[in-house]
Amino acid sequence: MSFFQKLKNFKSSDGNRKYLNNHSSKECPQDHPDVPELNTLNWIQQKLGDSPDVMIRSLSGFKEQTNIDVTIVYIDGLIDQQLLTTMLDVLANSPISSEDDPIAWIKNHLPIGSLKSVDKNQLLVSVLEGQAIILVGEGNTVFTVSIGGGARRSIEEPTSQTVLRGPKEGFTEDISTNMALLRRILRTPDLRFDPLTIGEYTKTKVSVAFIRGIAEPEIILEVKKRLLSIETDSILESGYIEEFIQDGVYTPFPTLMNTERPDAVAGGLLEGLVAIIVDGTPFVLLAPVTFFRFFISSEDYYQRYDIASFLRIIRFSSFLVALLLPSIFIAVTTFQQEMLPTTLLISLAAQRENTPLPALIEAFLMELTFEVIREAGVRMPRAIGPAISIVGALVLGQAAVQAGLVSAAMVIVVSFTAISNFVMPAINMAAAVRLLRFTLMLLAGSLGLFGILAGLVPILVHLVSLQTFGVPYLLPAAPFKLQNMKDLVLRFPWWSMRTRPAFISHRNPVRQGSNQKPDPQLTRDERDEDQ
């Protein structure tokens, strides 16, 4: 008899049916309709199922003085214990006469801010968000007090986007802390946060951040429209929202940027971008973003412009290397050997003389091996993760060459490709390159250089046709806009970038005054002559 047949027979018997009905009614209070004859406290207990972390405190001292019941309901672990103790001390020990109005007295004497009167429909949401509920009398009058707290991760340095020069603060999992970090940088009343709640069960707080007067209203409305259209049970991380609202569902290229650096988000807001802050994750989304923004680091704006330009050239070059180097090596060594110098061709032929596998299979095995080592280094504990990487990279690579399974040149190509993949600041763009690299390797192993061109043309056409919230993905290169080329592959000096990027927002284009180029003071010899 199958499991499902046994379960059906178990439910069909009268005794078991009665047992299931009794226990389901006790353990699943959310299935019950509202019972109007229950008072508010019993209604809350019924809805929350007598959960052990739901704390109920009755103030006997307050009742002795006013003959009115005052009850406080909160969830242990979601509130600040120090604020709770202060509130209980005031309510229990402050003198009150029977002639005083208890409701007015609570409003005037409670030292905790954000005291609000709510109706019954908002009670459960308030207590589950970490607020305390004050029930006066039979619960006809209800207040919520914002004393949220509990254990939270402190502000630390970002782990995924490290810089040598610049702020060391990173976002946390608390949305209030993240909003405060942005307020510290952008001290302007035009910085706005529009709150939303998404998720049937998680009730995740989401905030849309933008600077009024800089961000385009059409983009703000489009972001909110896509967020409000999300209907799902849960939002556990900003990646959920990214998949729901992104353009180009089947594209490997990211159309939204995620970052855990407050300075990167502030810089994006100043250029007209919109930020999506999600409670429970340190990664904030930025939209709309173009292809070239994924190669820009926050550190570029803290270094001299010549150094920043040099680093950007290295990043774009690394992108091409990570995408094309294995494919070109396979194509040249398999089909277009005449393109190689004679000395290099003889050296490669000598290395491949005892190698039993063709170049395509050899490259695939090496790439897959490195992907396994990379994933193992990420998942392993930090104490032994570097050891796994060293063993995999050195021992396996050296052993494979000595065993004659792969050539030394292939190990060099795959290793340099992997290192180039790590140069890109955005992890999601690096992941896209990893996926496309395997496709180009297959085409190179089939058709040589013609196969690589046959793969690059559709990729380029796809990039040109891709949009993010109505903004072309390859702006300002396609369509070409000369005025926005000052902060693309090369970064011009700050004093020459007087206007904001016009391809995202056309509002408030001027961000600094004219004639900001430094004017050197008189030299020492000129000062001596003047004297």
From TrEMBL:
Full protein name: Spore germination protein KA
Keyword Nucleotide-binding: no
Pfam families: GerA
Residue spans of biased composition, Basic and acidic residues class: 24-34, 522-531
Similarity remark: Belongs to the GerABKA family.
Bilayer-crossing regions: 273-296, 316-335, 405-423, 435-453
Keywords: Membrane, Transmembrane, Transmembrane helix
UniProt superkingdom: Bacteria
Annotated signal peptide: none
Species per Swiss-Prot/TrEMBL record: Paenibacillus tundrae
InterPro entries linked: Spore_Ger (IPR004995), UPF0353/GerABKA_families (IPR050768)
Segments for region (Disordered): 15-34, 506-531
Membrane in keyword set: yes
